[in-house]
Structures are given as C-alpha cells and as structure tokens.
Specification:
By secondary structure, the protein is α/β, with parallel strands linked by helices. Helices cover 34% and strands 18% of the residues. It contains five helices and five strands. Helix 3 links the parallel strand 3 and strand 4.
Amino acid sequence: MKSELENSHILQKADSLICRLLLVEDDPVAQDVTKLFLKNTCEVEIAKDGYEALQKVNSSRYDAILMDINLGSGMNGIESVKKIREVAGYETTPIVALTAYAMKGDKENFLAAGCTHYLSKPFDKKSLIELIKQIFFGDDLQEFV
C-alpha cells in the first residue's frame, strides 16, 4: 500500500488526473474507447506499435503502460514489454496486458513475460478504472476520488 506522500505525484487533488499512461494499441477504435474511458482520470498518450512505444519510453516518463498483446505486424506486445523492461526507470513500472487472449494459461504467460496486470478484451469502463485504482492505491481506495 502506497502512502499519500508516495502518491502525491499521481494524485494532486480530487479534480486532477491520477496518472500518466502510455497506451500501446494499433486499433484506432480501441485507442478512442480507452481514452474515453480514462477521460478525467488519466493523461493518455498513444503508441501505435512496439517500436513507437520504445521511442516514447526512452524520451518520457509514464506511471503505467497499457499494452495490447497483438499489435499486428512487427513487434508484438510481449516483445515490447521485454524491451521496455530493459529501459532504465521502467524495470518495475506497472504494465497491463490488454488482450483478447483469454484462454487458460494466457494470463499467467503474460505475467511471466513481464506484465504486472492483465485485463481481457472487451473490457468496460468500470473494470479499467478499478484496475487503475488497484495499481496506484491498492487497498487504500479512499485516497481515490
């Protein structure tokens, strides 16, 4: 559980954004929906593929990363996670696997590959917000407004 002091850079006041996220997603509709769900909660930047995600993490700091696993051609989400983990400052950054892969064992494989959390698609706003709350506040949800 993080103390209020540890969360001060994330939650300034009740009407402010709680975090800065990088959404790695190749589908424009999924990008728009996720940004809409997180409106007034998190600042969301988009990377359309793993290569763009690596460029962004090398030039900016994000509180967490939402990673689509199937990014089409090129580097997939798991490969991207492994490379992001090699970037200084991102060794323990929360990375959420957002994926339609929901077969038995998929979640465990994504967590073993470096993701810290998992959310299967399609997800709803409530599920995403609850996960963000858990990531940043654990059981101390009264700090989150």
